[in-house]
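Subject: for your reference before the review

Hello V.,

The reviewers asked for a structural picture of the protein, and I figured it would be easier to keep everything in one thread rather than splitting it across files. Below is the amino acid sequence we used in the manuscript, unchanged from the supplementary table.
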Amino acid sequence: MRYQLTPIHCRPWTVSYLSVKLIESHYENNYGGALRRLNAITEKLESLDWANTAGYVINGLKREELVALNSTLLHELYFASMGGDGQPTEAMSAVLARDFGSVLRWKDEFVAMGNALAGGSGWVVLVYLPRDRRLVNQYASDHSQAVAGGIPILALDMYEHAYHMDYGANAKAYVDTFMRNIDWKALYTRYADAAKVGGLRPLEQDPITEKLKSLDWANTPGYMINVLKREELVALNSTLLRELAGKGGDGQPTEAMSAVLARDFGSVLRWKDEFVAMGRALAGGSGWVVLTYIPRDRRLINHHASDHSRAVAGGIPILALDMYEHGANAKAYVDTFTRNIDWKALYTRYEEAAKVGGLRPLEQPEFGNLPSVGVEEVKAMLDTGRPVQVVDARPRASVFRTPEVMQGATWRDPERVQEWAGKLSKSDPVVVFCAYGFHVGCKTAIKLRDLGFDAKYMTGGHSAWKAIGGPIKLHA
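And here is what came back from the structure prediction:
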Protein backbone atom coordinates (compact mmCIF):
# COMPACT_ATOMS: atom_id res chain seq x y z
CA MET A 1 0.00 0.00 0.00
CA ARG A 2 1.03 3.62 -0.45
CA TYR A 3 0.80 6.02 2.46
CA GLN A 4 -1.07 9.21 1.57
CA LEU A 5 0.10 12.75 2.23
CA THR A 6 -1.83 14.77 4.81
CA PRO A 7 -2.31 18.48 4.00
CA ILE A 8 -0.65 20.84 6.48
CA HIS A 9 -2.81 21.24 9.59
CA CYS A 10 -1.96 24.85 10.43
CA ARG A 11 -2.17 28.06 8.45
CA PRO A 12 1.53 29.02 8.24
CA TRP A 13 0.91 32.77 8.06
CA THR A 14 -0.89 32.66 11.43
CA VAL A 15 2.09 31.21 13.33
CA SER A 16 3.89 34.00 15.20
CA TYR A 17 7.69 34.35 15.07
CA LEU A 18 8.19 31.33 12.78
CA SER A 19 8.60 32.35 9.14
CA VAL A 20 6.39 31.01 6.36
CA LYS A 21 9.60 30.05 4.55
CA LEU A 22 10.69 27.87 7.48
CA ILE A 23 7.31 26.17 7.88
CA GLU A 24 7.01 25.51 4.15
CA SER A 25 10.51 24.03 4.00
CA HIS A 26 9.82 21.90 7.08
CA TYR A 27 6.57 20.53 5.62
CA GLU A 28 7.74 20.04 2.04
CA ASN A 29 11.26 18.72 2.66
CA ASN A 30 11.23 17.02 6.06
CA TYR A 31 7.67 15.75 6.31
CA GLY A 32 7.41 15.19 2.55
CA GLY A 33 10.82 13.50 2.48
CA ALA A 34 9.80 11.12 5.28
CA LEU A 35 6.60 10.22 3.43
CA ARG A 36 8.42 9.51 0.18
CA ARG A 37 11.01 7.43 2.06
CA LEU A 38 8.25 5.50 3.87
CA ASN A 39 6.58 4.60 0.58
CA ALA A 40 9.90 3.46 -0.91
CA ILE A 41 10.60 1.24 2.13
CA THR A 42 7.04 -0.13 2.05
CA GLU A 43 7.43 -1.07 -1.60
CA LYS A 44 10.66 -2.91 -0.79
CA LEU A 45 9.06 -4.76 2.14
CA GLU A 46 6.08 -5.82 0.05
CA SER A 47 8.42 -7.59 -2.40
CA LEU A 48 10.50 -9.33 0.28
CA ASP A 49 10.83 -13.12 0.49
CA TRP A 50 10.61 -13.28 4.28
CA ALA A 51 11.71 -16.89 4.65
CA ASN A 52 14.93 -16.39 2.68
CA THR A 53 15.96 -12.83 3.57
CA ALA A 54 18.88 -12.37 5.96
CA GLY A 55 17.96 -11.22 9.47
CA TYR A 56 20.12 -8.11 9.34
CA VAL A 57 18.30 -6.96 6.18
CA ILE A 58 14.90 -7.50 7.84
CA ASN A 59 16.03 -5.64 10.98
CA GLY A 60 17.42 -2.75 8.96
CA LEU A 61 14.35 -2.34 6.76
CA LYS A 62 11.86 -2.61 9.64
CA ARG A 63 13.89 -0.14 11.72
CA GLU A 64 13.89 2.34 8.82
CA GLU A 65 10.15 1.76 8.30
CA LEU A 66 9.49 2.67 11.95
CA VAL A 67 11.68 5.79 11.73
CA ALA A 68 9.96 7.03 8.57
CA LEU A 69 6.46 6.15 9.78
CA ASN A 70 6.89 7.95 13.10
CA SER A 71 8.44 10.92 11.35
CA THR A 72 5.28 11.36 9.27
CA LEU A 73 2.96 10.84 12.25
CA LEU A 74 4.82 13.22 14.56
CA HIS A 75 5.30 15.90 11.91
CA GLU A 76 1.55 15.90 11.18
CA LEU A 77 0.87 16.38 14.89
CA TYR A 78 3.56 19.07 15.16
CA PHE A 79 1.90 21.23 12.50
CA ALA A 80 -1.51 20.60 14.08
CA SER A 81 -0.13 21.73 17.45
CA MET A 82 0.43 25.30 16.27
CA GLY A 83 -1.72 28.14 15.01
CA GLY A 84 -3.28 29.24 18.31
CA ASP A 85 -2.70 32.13 20.68
CA GLY A 86 -0.78 30.15 23.30
CA GLN A 87 -3.39 30.82 26.03
CA PRO A 88 -4.45 27.65 27.88
CA THR A 89 -8.18 27.00 27.87
CA GLU A 90 -9.98 26.37 31.14
CA ALA A 91 -10.82 22.79 30.17
CA MET A 92 -7.26 21.81 29.21
CA SER A 93 -5.84 23.63 32.23
CA ALA A 94 -7.98 21.43 34.49
CA VAL A 95 -6.65 18.28 32.82
CA LEU A 96 -3.01 19.38 33.17
CA ALA A 97 -3.56 20.38 36.79
CA ARG A 98 -5.00 16.93 37.48
CA ASP A 99 -2.02 15.07 35.95
CA PHE A 100 0.90 17.43 36.67
CA GLY A 101 -0.25 19.50 39.64
CA SER A 102 -0.66 22.72 37.65
CA VAL A 103 -0.34 24.13 34.15
CA LEU A 104 2.89 25.83 35.22
CA ARG A 105 4.35 22.56 36.49
CA TRP A 106 3.48 20.87 33.17
CA LYS A 107 4.98 23.77 31.19
CA ASP A 108 8.19 23.80 33.26
CA GLU A 109 8.68 20.09 32.54
CA PHE A 110 7.78 20.30 28.83
CA VAL A 111 10.01 23.32 28.22
CA ALA A 112 12.91 21.87 30.21
CA MET A 113 12.71 18.66 28.16
CA GLY A 114 12.83 20.68 24.94
CA ASN A 115 15.79 22.72 26.15
CA ALA A 116 17.56 19.52 27.24
CA LEU A 117 17.47 18.28 23.63
CA ALA A 118 19.04 21.50 22.30
CA GLY A 119 22.12 20.88 20.21
CA GLY A 120 20.99 17.34 19.48
CA SER A 121 17.74 16.04 18.06
CA GLY A 122 14.47 14.48 19.07
CA TRP A 123 10.91 15.18 20.16
CA VAL A 124 8.99 16.19 23.26
CA VAL A 125 5.49 14.72 23.13
CA LEU A 126 2.48 15.12 25.41
CA VAL A 127 0.94 11.64 25.41
CA TYR A 128 -2.29 10.19 26.81
CA LEU A 129 -1.93 6.72 28.38
CA PRO A 130 -5.26 4.82 28.04
CA ARG A 131 -4.21 2.25 30.61
CA ASP A 132 -3.51 4.85 33.29
CA ARG A 133 -6.05 7.43 32.05
CA ARG A 134 -3.54 10.24 32.37
CA LEU A 135 -1.08 12.39 30.44
CA VAL A 136 2.73 12.21 30.47
CA ASN A 137 5.44 14.20 28.74
CA GLN A 138 7.43 11.71 26.66
CA TYR A 139 11.06 12.02 25.61
CA ALA A 140 12.32 10.80 22.22
CA SER A 141 15.93 11.14 21.13
CA ASP A 142 14.95 10.04 17.62
CA HIS A 143 11.86 9.29 15.53
CA SER A 144 11.58 5.66 16.64
CA GLN A 145 10.91 6.20 20.34
CA ALA A 146 7.29 6.34 21.50
CA VAL A 147 4.97 5.08 24.23
CA ALA A 148 3.47 1.73 23.23
CA GLY A 149 -0.27 2.32 22.92
CA GLY A 150 0.04 5.95 24.01
CA ILE A 151 -1.86 8.60 22.04
CA PRO A 152 0.20 11.73 21.29
CA ILE A 153 -1.77 14.99 21.47
CA LEU A 154 1.03 17.61 21.31
CA ALA A 155 4.46 17.36 19.66
CA LEU A 156 7.51 19.64 19.75
CA ASP A 157 10.07 18.91 17.02
CA MET A 158 13.60 19.47 18.40
CA TYR A 159 15.51 18.60 15.24
CA GLU A 160 17.47 21.62 14.03
CA HIS A 161 15.56 21.74 10.74
CA ALA A 162 12.54 22.92 12.77
CA TYR A 163 14.17 26.20 13.82
CA HIS A 164 17.67 26.76 12.43
CA MET A 165 16.52 28.87 9.47
CA ASP A 166 14.94 31.41 11.85
CA TYR A 167 16.82 31.00 15.12
CA GLY A 168 20.21 29.51 14.28
CA ALA A 169 21.46 27.56 17.30
CA ASN A 170 19.13 29.38 19.73
CA ALA A 171 16.90 26.42 20.51
CA LYS A 172 15.64 28.02 23.74
CA ALA A 173 14.05 30.91 21.81
CA TYR A 174 12.44 28.43 19.43
CA VAL A 175 10.93 26.40 22.30
CA ASP A 176 9.47 29.59 23.81
CA THR A 177 8.04 30.50 20.39
CA PHE A 178 6.41 27.09 20.04
CA MET A 179 4.74 27.50 23.43
CA ARG A 180 3.32 30.89 22.37
CA ASN A 181 1.76 29.28 19.29
CA ILE A 182 0.03 26.25 20.81
CA ASP A 183 -3.55 25.82 19.61
CA TRP A 184 -5.13 24.98 22.96
CA LYS A 185 -8.65 24.47 21.66
CA ALA A 186 -7.44 21.86 19.17
CA LEU A 187 -5.26 20.33 21.90
CA TYR A 188 -8.25 19.79 24.15
CA THR A 189 -10.22 18.27 21.26
CA ARG A 190 -7.42 15.75 20.73
CA TYR A 191 -7.33 15.05 24.47
CA ALA A 192 -11.10 14.47 24.53
CA ASP A 193 -10.78 12.04 21.61
CA ALA A 194 -7.88 10.21 23.28
CA ALA A 195 -9.67 9.94 26.62
CA LYS A 196 -12.35 7.80 24.99
CA VAL A 197 -9.83 5.00 24.41
CA GLY A 198 -9.71 2.22 27.01
CA GLY A 199 -6.59 0.41 28.20
CA LEU A 200 -5.39 -2.46 30.38
CA ARG A 201 -4.96 -2.31 34.16
CA PRO A 202 -3.38 0.80 35.76
CA LEU A 203 0.32 0.95 36.59
CA GLU A 204 1.49 1.28 40.17
CA GLN A 205 3.86 4.10 41.10
CA ASP A 206 7.54 3.38 40.46
CA PRO A 207 10.79 5.03 41.69
CA ILE A 208 11.37 6.89 38.40
CA THR A 209 7.90 8.48 38.51
CA GLU A 210 8.46 9.54 42.13
CA LYS A 211 11.84 11.04 41.23
CA LEU A 212 10.35 13.04 38.34
CA LYS A 213 7.58 14.39 40.55
CA SER A 214 10.15 15.98 42.86
CA LEU A 215 12.36 17.43 40.12
CA ASP A 216 13.14 21.14 39.88
CA TRP A 217 12.82 21.33 36.09
CA ALA A 218 14.28 24.81 35.69
CA ASN A 219 17.50 23.97 37.52
CA THR A 220 18.11 20.31 36.62
CA PRO A 221 20.89 19.72 34.03
CA GLY A 222 19.67 18.69 30.60
CA TYR A 223 21.59 15.40 30.63
CA MET A 224 19.84 14.34 33.85
CA ILE A 225 16.40 15.20 32.40
CA ASN A 226 17.22 13.12 29.30
CA VAL A 227 18.42 10.18 31.43
CA LEU A 228 15.32 10.14 33.64
CA LYS A 229 12.82 10.61 30.81
CA ARG A 230 14.46 7.90 28.72
CA GLU A 231 14.40 5.47 31.64
CA GLU A 232 10.76 6.37 32.29
CA LEU A 233 9.91 5.50 28.66
CA VAL A 234 11.83 2.20 28.82
CA ALA A 235 10.14 1.12 32.06
CA LEU A 236 6.69 2.22 30.89
CA ASN A 237 6.89 0.38 27.56
CA SER A 238 8.33 -2.71 29.21
CA THR A 239 5.26 -3.05 31.41
CA LEU A 240 2.82 -2.16 28.62
CA LEU A 241 4.24 -4.69 26.17
CA ARG A 242 4.63 -7.53 28.70
CA GLU A 243 0.96 -7.17 29.61
CA LEU A 244 0.17 -7.71 25.92
CA ALA A 245 1.54 -11.25 25.79
CA GLY A 246 -1.26 -12.53 23.54
CA LYS A 247 -0.83 -16.19 24.59
CA GLY A 248 -3.28 -18.77 25.96
CA GLY A 249 -5.16 -19.72 22.81
CA ASP A 250 -5.09 -22.62 20.40
CA GLY A 251 -3.16 -20.80 17.66
CA GLN A 252 -5.98 -21.22 15.12
CA PRO A 253 -6.84 -17.92 13.36
CA THR A 254 -10.48 -16.92 13.59
CA GLU A 255 -12.38 -16.09 10.43
CA ALA A 256 -12.85 -12.45 11.48
CA MET A 257 -9.16 -11.83 12.26
CA SER A 258 -8.10 -13.72 9.14
CA ALA A 259 -10.14 -11.30 7.03
CA VAL A 260 -8.43 -8.31 8.67
CA LEU A 261 -4.93 -9.72 8.10
CA ALA A 262 -5.77 -10.61 4.48
CA ARG A 263 -6.91 -7.02 3.93
CA ASP A 264 -3.70 -5.48 5.31
CA PHE A 265 -1.05 -8.09 4.41
CA GLY A 266 -2.56 -10.02 1.47
CA SER A 267 -3.15 -13.21 3.46
CA VAL A 268 -2.76 -14.69 6.94
CA LEU A 269 0.23 -16.68 5.66
CA ARG A 270 1.93 -13.52 4.35
CA TRP A 271 1.40 -11.84 7.74
CA LYS A 272 2.72 -14.88 9.60
CA ASP A 273 5.79 -15.20 7.35
CA GLU A 274 6.68 -11.56 8.06
CA PHE A 275 5.97 -11.72 11.82
CA VAL A 276 7.94 -14.95 12.29
CA ALA A 277 10.87 -13.75 10.15
CA MET A 278 11.05 -10.55 12.20
CA GLY A 279 11.16 -12.55 15.42
CA ARG A 280 13.91 -14.84 14.15
CA ALA A 281 15.87 -11.82 12.88
CA LEU A 282 16.11 -10.61 16.50
CA ALA A 283 17.53 -13.95 17.70
CA GLY A 284 20.80 -13.52 19.55
CA GLY A 285 19.91 -9.96 20.40
CA SER A 286 16.86 -8.43 22.02
CA GLY A 287 13.67 -6.58 21.21
CA TRP A 288 10.02 -6.95 20.31
CA VAL A 289 7.87 -7.74 17.30
CA VAL A 290 4.55 -5.96 17.62
CA LEU A 291 1.38 -6.11 15.54
CA THR A 292 0.12 -2.53 15.70
CA TYR A 293 -2.99 -0.72 14.47
CA ILE A 294 -2.37 2.74 12.97
CA PRO A 295 -5.47 4.94 13.39
CA ARG A 296 -4.38 7.45 10.72
CA ASP A 297 -4.17 4.79 8.03
CA ARG A 298 -6.81 2.46 9.50
CA ARG A 299 -4.58 -0.58 9.00
CA LEU A 300 -2.23 -2.99 10.79
CA ILE A 301 1.55 -3.27 10.46
CA ASN A 302 4.21 -5.47 12.06
CA HIS A 303 6.73 -3.20 13.71
CA HIS A 304 10.26 -3.86 14.90
CA ALA A 305 11.59 -2.66 18.27
CA SER A 306 15.25 -3.21 19.10
CA ASP A 307 14.57 -2.16 22.71
CA HIS A 308 11.70 -1.21 25.02
CA SER A 309 11.65 2.45 23.96
CA ARG A 310 10.70 1.88 20.30
CA ALA A 311 7.06 2.03 19.26
CA VAL A 312 4.75 3.55 16.65
CA ALA A 313 3.68 7.07 17.69
CA GLY A 314 -0.06 6.86 18.28
CA GLY A 315 -0.17 3.21 17.20
CA ILE A 316 -2.28 0.73 19.20
CA PRO A 317 -0.40 -2.56 19.84
CA ILE A 318 -2.62 -5.64 19.74
CA LEU A 319 -0.03 -8.47 19.73
CA ALA A 320 3.51 -8.52 21.10
CA LEU A 321 6.30 -11.09 20.80
CA ASP A 322 9.05 -10.67 23.44
CA MET A 323 12.47 -11.50 21.95
CA TYR A 324 14.57 -10.79 25.04
CA GLU A 325 16.90 -13.57 26.31
CA HIS A 326 15.42 -16.78 24.99
CA GLY A 327 18.53 -18.86 24.61
CA ALA A 328 20.03 -20.09 21.38
CA ASN A 329 16.92 -21.79 19.98
CA ALA A 330 14.91 -18.64 19.22
CA LYS A 331 13.33 -20.33 16.19
CA ALA A 332 11.57 -22.93 18.36
CA TYR A 333 10.42 -20.21 20.79
CA VAL A 334 8.91 -18.08 17.99
CA ASP A 335 7.10 -21.13 16.56
CA THR A 336 5.77 -21.95 20.03
CA PHE A 337 4.50 -18.40 20.50
CA THR A 338 2.55 -18.43 17.25
CA ARG A 339 0.99 -21.81 18.15
CA ASN A 340 -0.32 -20.28 21.40
CA ILE A 341 -1.82 -17.01 20.12
CA ASP A 342 -5.28 -16.29 21.54
CA TRP A 343 -6.96 -15.25 18.30
CA LYS A 344 -10.33 -14.45 19.83
CA ALA A 345 -8.72 -12.03 22.29
CA LEU A 346 -6.58 -10.64 19.47
CA TYR A 347 -9.65 -9.80 17.39
CA THR A 348 -11.30 -8.17 20.42
CA ARG A 349 -8.24 -5.92 20.82
CA TYR A 350 -8.34 -5.14 17.10
CA GLU A 351 -11.99 -4.11 17.33
CA GLU A 352 -11.20 -1.77 20.24
CA ALA A 353 -8.22 -0.30 18.39
CA ALA A 354 -10.25 0.24 15.22
CA LYS A 355 -12.53 2.61 17.14
CA VAL A 356 -9.65 5.06 17.61
CA GLY A 357 -9.63 7.88 15.08
CA GLY A 358 -6.59 9.57 13.58
CA LEU A 359 -5.63 13.22 13.71
CA ARG A 360 -8.57 15.45 12.87
CA PRO A 361 -8.03 17.60 9.75
CA LEU A 362 -8.16 21.38 9.91
CA GLU A 363 -11.81 22.19 9.36
CA GLN A 364 -13.08 24.65 6.76
CA PRO A 365 -16.85 24.51 7.33
CA GLU A 366 -17.49 27.30 4.84
CA PHE A 367 -16.19 25.00 2.07
CA GLY A 368 -17.60 21.74 3.43
CA ASN A 369 -19.51 20.74 0.27
CA LEU A 370 -16.88 21.84 -2.24
CA PRO A 371 -15.44 18.87 -4.22
CA SER A 372 -11.73 18.27 -3.71
CA VAL A 373 -9.00 16.03 -5.09
CA GLY A 374 -5.77 14.85 -3.46
CA VAL A 375 -2.31 15.61 -4.80
CA GLU A 376 -1.57 11.93 -5.43
CA GLU A 377 -4.66 11.63 -7.63
CA VAL A 378 -3.77 14.77 -9.58
CA LYS A 379 -0.26 13.43 -10.18
CA ALA A 380 -1.71 10.13 -11.40
CA MET A 381 -4.02 12.02 -13.80
CA LEU A 382 -1.08 13.94 -15.28
CA ASP A 383 1.20 10.89 -15.42
CA THR A 384 -1.39 8.85 -17.32
CA GLY A 385 -2.34 11.66 -19.68
CA ARG A 386 -5.94 11.99 -18.54
CA PRO A 387 -7.52 15.25 -19.73
CA VAL A 388 -7.35 17.80 -16.90
CA GLN A 389 -6.78 21.55 -16.70
CA VAL A 390 -4.62 22.47 -13.70
CA VAL A 391 -4.72 26.08 -12.50
CA ASP A 392 -2.20 27.50 -10.05
CA ALA A 393 -4.29 30.17 -8.28
CA ARG A 394 -1.78 31.29 -5.67
CA PRO A 395 -1.87 35.05 -5.04
CA ARG A 396 0.61 37.05 -7.12
CA ALA A 397 2.74 37.86 -4.06
CA SER A 398 3.05 34.15 -3.18
CA VAL A 399 4.21 33.24 -6.69
CA PHE A 400 6.77 36.04 -6.73
CA ARG A 401 8.09 34.96 -3.32
CA THR A 402 8.64 31.36 -4.49
CA PRO A 403 8.69 31.44 -8.30
CA GLU A 404 8.09 27.72 -8.77
CA VAL A 405 5.04 26.32 -10.48
CA MET A 406 3.84 22.76 -10.76
CA GLN A 407 4.65 21.11 -14.09
CA GLY A 408 1.45 20.78 -16.04
CA ALA A 409 -0.15 23.78 -14.31
CA THR A 410 -0.75 27.32 -15.54
CA TRP A 411 -0.66 30.24 -13.13
CA ARG A 412 -3.72 32.47 -13.15
CA ASP A 413 -4.36 35.53 -11.00
CA PRO A 414 -7.13 34.59 -8.52
CA GLU A 415 -8.24 38.23 -8.46
CA ARG A 416 -9.11 38.13 -12.19
CA VAL A 417 -11.06 34.92 -12.68
CA GLN A 418 -13.55 36.53 -15.05
CA GLU A 419 -10.71 37.62 -17.36
CA TRP A 420 -9.07 34.23 -17.85
CA ALA A 421 -11.94 31.76 -17.29
CA GLY A 422 -12.85 31.96 -20.98
CA LYS A 423 -9.51 30.34 -21.87
CA LEU A 424 -10.57 27.11 -20.14
CA SER A 425 -12.59 24.32 -21.71
CA LYS A 426 -15.86 23.24 -20.10
CA SER A 427 -15.49 19.76 -21.55
CA ASP A 428 -12.49 18.82 -19.36
CA PRO A 429 -12.28 18.91 -15.54
CA VAL A 430 -10.43 21.75 -13.81
CA VAL A 431 -8.20 21.37 -10.75
CA VAL A 432 -7.39 24.56 -8.84
CA PHE A 433 -4.85 25.02 -6.09
CA CYS A 434 -3.36 27.78 -3.96
CA ALA A 435 -0.40 27.73 -1.55
CA TYR A 436 -1.79 25.32 1.06
CA GLY A 437 -5.30 24.35 -0.07
CA PHE A 438 -7.16 26.90 2.00
CA HIS A 439 -9.31 29.92 1.12
CA VAL A 440 -7.84 31.19 -2.16
CA GLY A 441 -7.97 27.89 -4.03
CA CYS A 442 -11.39 27.05 -2.62
CA LYS A 443 -12.88 30.43 -3.52
CA THR A 444 -11.42 30.24 -7.02
CA ALA A 445 -12.91 26.77 -7.52
CA ILE A 446 -16.31 28.09 -6.39
CA LYS A 447 -16.14 30.97 -8.89
CA LEU A 448 -15.33 28.55 -11.70
CA ARG A 449 -18.15 26.20 -10.70
CA ASP A 450 -20.53 29.16 -10.72
CA LEU A 451 -19.40 29.79 -14.32
CA GLY A 452 -20.27 26.23 -15.30
CA PHE A 453 -16.89 24.48 -15.02
CA ASP A 454 -16.33 21.07 -13.41
CA ALA A 455 -13.82 22.52 -10.94
CA LYS A 456 -12.30 20.99 -7.80
CA TYR A 457 -9.64 22.31 -5.44
CA MET A 458 -6.46 20.34 -4.74
CA THR A 459 -6.06 19.57 -1.03
CA GLY A 460 -2.76 20.73 0.44
CA GLY A 461 -2.09 23.03 -2.51
CA HIS A 462 1.34 23.84 -3.96
CA SER A 463 3.10 22.92 -0.71
CA ALA A 464 1.59 19.42 -0.72
CA TRP A 465 2.59 18.94 -4.38
CA LYS A 466 6.21 19.69 -3.46
CA ALA A 467 5.98 17.44 -0.41
CA ILE A 468 5.13 14.36 -2.51
CA GLY A 469 8.02 15.18 -4.85
CA GLY A 470 5.80 16.34 -7.71
CA PRO A 471 7.75 17.89 -10.62
CA ILE A 472 8.06 21.68 -10.63
CA LYS A 473 9.45 24.32 -12.98
CA LEU A 474 10.31 28.01 -12.72
CA HIS A 475 7.39 30.34 -13.40
CA ALA A 476 8.01 32.42 -16.51
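For the response letter, the relevant points are probably these. Residues 132 and 203 are 6 Å apart (CA to CA). The longest strand covers residues 123-129.

Happy to draft the paragraph if you're swamped.

O.
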